[in-house]
Design a protein that fits this description.
Strand content: under 5%
CATH architecture of the largest domain: Orthogonal Bundle
Oligomer: single chain
Structural class: mainly alpha
Order of helices and strands: HHHHHHHHHHHHH
Number of strands: 0
Radius of gyration: 24 Å
Low-confidence stretches: none
């Protein structure tokens, strides 16, 4: 590598470290009164330099740094573009010895790890996805969504009942802590279904649809339950015994 390339790499590395340590406004180069349009424009301009796909020739070894910083810039754009998040962020900056910047960097890295995990899950690479999810949970231990996804990838087709009970208990804990997404209830419903806790599973699927009407998988489970319930023999009829044990079975 030439001296000029060495110099350029060092300059980029130093600039990146400064931006990672800076607050959102400084990172994007905007004032605290910047409009959403100005923030968007600043982000687009920053992306021209720091997007990993625009890595200059000869600086391939800096890809991880570019990726980390770009995630940081994405977080800055999202935070400052949302009035409520922006207001809370400014309040955090005003606190003595604030940890807002370092905390946001960790959040950005965690979000990046989570997106990597989602991409691997689409490729059915569970082992790879689990590694990124563990990293996301480590970086953002307060994010329940990451923890829920990590529990779910451990539910295997051949998981023994004892293991399913452990994972179900973990989902119970997360639901009690912050059950704010339909995905959480859907996952727990699937585990309960495997454990033959059919009424409880149905309740989870119903709640999942209430929280997220676009969850077609949960809606399908509810329809199947209702359809089979309507076809169930009346109490006292022959064949009633054992019917509900077959409910949901496919």
């Amino acid at each position: 590598m030439s001296t000029d390339q060495d110099k350029r790499r060092n300059e980029l590395r130093e600039a990146a470290q400064k931006l990672l340590a800076a607050d959102h406004f400084v990172a994007l180069g905007v004032s605290r009164t910047a409009s959403p349009e100005e923030i968007k424009k600043a982000f687009v301009e920053a992306a021209k330099t720091w997007h990993p796909d625009r890595l200059p020739p000869g600086l391939e070894d800096a890809r991880s740094l570019f990726t980390k910083l770009f995630a940081r810039l994405e977080l800055a754009r999202a935070t400052l573009s949302d009035p409520a998040r922006r207001s809370r962020y400014i309040e955090e900056l005003a606190k003595p010895e604030t940890t807002a910047t370092s905390g946001d960097i960790s959040s950005a890295e965690a979000a990046l790890e989570y997106r990597k995990a989602e991409a691997l899950l689409k490729k059915h690479d569970l082992a790879g996805a689990m590694g990124h999810l563990r990293r996301a949970v480590h970086l953002a231990p307060g994010n329940v969504e990451y923890q829920v996804q990590l529990v779910w990838v451990q539910v295997k087709p051949d998981s023994p009942l004892a293991r399913l009970r452990e994972l179900s208990a973990e989902l119970d804990r997360l639901v009690a802590r912050a059950a704010t997404t339909g995905r959480t209830y859907y996952y727990r419903g699937q585990v309960r279904k495997r454990l033959d806790l059919l009424k409880e599973a149905h309740a989870d699927f119903v709640r999942a649809v209430e929280l997220d009407p676009s969850n077609v998988d949960a809606a399908r489970e509810v329809r199947i339950f209702n359809m089979r319930k309507d076809k169930a023999p009346k109490e006292g009829d022959s064949g009633a015994v054992g019917f509900f044990k077959k409910l949901f079975k496919r």
